[in-house]
Design a protein that fits this description.
Helices cover about 45% and strands about 20% of the residues of chain A. Chain A is α+β, with helices and mostly antiparallel strands and about 220 residues long.
């Protein structure tokens, strides 16, 4: 399903609170099938708009969640720890390493190293699975999407410690930039339909702010 | 395209035996590594894409930071010596290992007290770990520190040439220094190159190395509680000494120096061809003798701690390339221990001059970086500029240098007395930078009074006796 709709957000000051957003929602296919399809569509869309230097930043909410859970943190503690990780709080890594010394290598790779290959995911797997076996599915999903992007010849980075909206997303998250400007962001949220009273259905999607996208396209044309 | 091997750096020295045993237990066997083979490179049994190279422990972090090696095992203190200064370095510490390790401590003479020192005047600190030292001393809030980065034996400096030394606890205690504070908790770690971890599948080496027994994670640099100073630090200058101080070397230079002194009719009790006390005794009134590493003598003389030191012209040249205006000069040539210092290349290189060599290396790629490895990093840097090498990189080393060329560097800036070791490693010297013999050095300005007279007397006797040596 696709849409072009106004959305309403709180913005401080006099900034517009009504934004026009376009997006795609994909219900049904799981990560193995759905994630590559969704990303291919996002890249095709931006290419059709004439945008260049497309780059994909990938993350996976489930990876961080699995690591934090294995360190014995409950959900509330996971959320506050993840906020600290996003803020670059190095003492968090020290605390987590002290709690689970065997997980130091996996934490370092997740928090400090930006990957750009399936090799990186293999290194995550090597360091993480002996300590955090619950991360297996997340790693497989990340590897699947990296392999698909390799096949498509797309440029990408894997920044597993930067999954946006940790509570909302359940799987791979991504954002696509053109010449360094963010154009599209999205990801997998398999728990969404259930959380609003529906039946459990795998779901993923992406969205773009129309005004932001128009600005990037216009700037690209004027160069 | 051929897949690049996964390159793993392992330490030689005391870590080698216990590490080899642990590596065998996780099926990571580099034949010959544990036995202390003279080879520097090893294949790993059953892991065809993995290569092992042996380095001095302290050289390993820089090799990983440069991206020459993907994974490595080494002492955490040398890792932190880089990371504490260069926060965004390319090294990722991965796992603390259960291997013997020692902590770094701040040591001083018996009865020394950090608070009292900090208020008494400038605190001179000798160490091989200047970055770790700076980190710890800054956090201790010692207001006036003079940090001496030495090549070796920092423990030789207190109490007369420095108030404190920072080094391995056992080394400091062997020289009767007492521990005043902890500087680094030690530890041995598996580390990785950031780019390699991001870009390459290292599983063939990473998986077995991650299975090595876990060590204590409480390693690394300490952040001590600041001293609570109750008095205003004194800015008073150190009193002028009245003894004539002379430094004599240990190690390879010792027998040559003993022979040079003997030829001049000078003997120091406790300093012979097979004995080197820290403070040998002189029968000459007003003369004080101290044994230390010859590498550190030019600095000790420049700092005013010694009136004369018996070292090598190579070390004077290295110091001069670092500090060209330092007040140190050669007083006389002892004309012993002939030594050539120069550019060393592979024996198989089809070139007779350094110019031909550079042309050969760049025949297919004019922008190729020429790598120069050396214990004498400043001298190597100066040589590269003097020779107009263009794009080059200096790789600082502390040992095991013979195994570098040709795989890890194109040029080695190295010294040789007979050339035997070079030949054994299929190397040859293509360009001589300097001829070096042992020499006496002193301050550029002659001291006044009795010290000046003694300096003249020593120079005269050493010059006269050794003019006809060899």
């Amino acid at each position: 399903m696709s849409y072009v709709e106004p959305v309403y957000r709180f913005e401080p000051g006099d900034a517009d609170r009504e934004l026009w957003q376009c997006g795609v929602e994909l219900f049904g296919p799981g990560a193995a099938e759905g994630d590559p399809e969704l990303l291919r569509m996002a890249l095709e869309l931006l290419t059709a708009l004439g945008l260049e230097d497309l780059r994909v930043d990938l993350a996976h909410a489930g990876l961080i969640r699995a690591v934090l859970a294995s360190a014995g943190l409950d959900f509330a503690e996971q959320l506050s720890s993840y906020d600290r990780m996003l803020e670059g709080d190095q003492s968090l890594i020290e605390e987590l390493t002290a709690a689970q010394p065997d997980g130091a290598a996996a934490l370092r790779l997740l928090a400090d190293v930006d990957g750009d290959s399936t090799g990186y995911v293999a290194n995550l797997r090597t360091t993480m699975l002996p300590v955090v076996p619950a991360a297996e599915q997340a790693l497989a999903e990340l590897e699947g999407i990296a392999t698909a992007l390799d096949a498509a010849g797309a440029m990408y980075r894997i920044l597993p410690g930067t999954a946006s909206n940790f509570e909302y997303y359940s799987g791979v998250t991504f954002r696509v930039t053109a010449n360094g400007n963010e154009c599209i962001s999205g990801g997998r949220y398999d728990g969404l339909t259930e959380s609003v009273g529906g039946s459990s259905v795998p779901a993923s999607g992406f969205a773009a702010s129309l005004s932001q996208l128009a600005e990037v396209v216009t700037n690209g044309e004027s160069k | 395209m051929k897949e690049l091997p996964i390159r793993v750096a392992l330490p030689r020295g005391e870590l080698r035996t216990p590490l080899a045993e642990q590596l065998a237990a996780v099926d990571f066997v580099a034949e010959g590594y544990g036995e202390g083979s003279r080879s520097y490179r090893f294949d790993v049994n059953g892991r065809p894409g993995v290569q092992v190279r042996v380095f001095s422990d302290e050289d390993i972090p820089i090799q990983v930071a440069l991206g020459n090696y993907d994974l490595a095992i080494c002492s955490r203190a040398w890792v932190d010596e880089l990371l504490v200064r260069y926060r965004h370095d390319s090294i990722v510490p991965l796992r603390a290992l259960d291997l013997p390790s020692e902590r770094l401590v701040i040591g001083g003479a018996a009865g020394a007290n950090l608070e009292a020192m900090a208020t008494a005047g400038p605190v001179r600190v000798a160490t091989e770990y200047p970055n770790v030292a700076q980190h710890v001393l800054t956090r201790l809030r010692i207001p006036n520190v003079q940090l001496f980065e030495v090549w070796a034996q920092a423990q030789a400096w207190p109490p007369d040439d420095a108030e404190l030394a920072i080094g391995l606890q056992s080394d400091l205690e062997a020289d009767n220094l007492v521990t005043l504070a902890e500087a680094h908790r030690g530890g041995v770690w598996l580390i990785g190159n950031r780019e390699s971890l991001a870009q390459r599948n290292l599983e063939a080496a990473l998986a077995p190395l991650m299975a090595l027994p876990l060590g204590p994670s409480a390693t690394g640099v300490v952040s001590p509680t600041p001293l609570q100073l109750t008095a205003v630090p004194s800015m008073a200058a150190r009193p002028e000494r009245d003894t004539f101080r002379i430094a004599v070397p240990d190690g390879h230079a010792q027998r040559h120096t003993v022979a040079a002194l003997a030829a001049a009719g000078i003997e120091f009790e406790g300093y012979t061809a097979d004995r080197a006390d820290r403070w040998p005794q002189s029968s000459i009134d007003g003369v004080e003798v101290k044994m230390m590493r010859p590498q550190d003598m030019p600095r000790a003389v420049a700092l005013g701690g010694f009136d004369m030191a018996l070292t090598g012209q190579d070390w004077l040249g290295v110091f001069d390339s670092l500090f060209p205006s330092a007040p140190v000069t050669q007083l006389c040539d002892l004309q012993r221990s002939d030594y050539r210092l120069g550019a060393v290349v592979s024996e198989d290189l089809p070139a007779e001059t350094i110019g031909e060599a550079v042309a050969y290396w760049r025949r297919d790629d004019p922008g190729r970086t020429i790598r120069l490895a050396s214990e004498y990093a400043a001298l190597a840097d100066q040589y590269a500029r003097d020779q107009h090498l263009g794009r080059y990189r200096v790789i600082p080393l502390s040992g095991a240098s013979e195994g570098f060329v040709p795989e890890d560097a194109e040029i080695l800036i190295e010294g040789t007395e007979t050339g035997t070791t070079l030949k054994a490693n299929r190397l040859r010297m293509i360009d001589v930078i300097m001829m070096s013999t042992n020499c006496a050095i002193g301050n550029s300005t002659r001291p006044d009074g009795r010290r000046g007279e003694l300096r003249d007397e020593f120079v005269e006797r050493l010059s006269g006796a050794n003019a006809s040596a060899d």
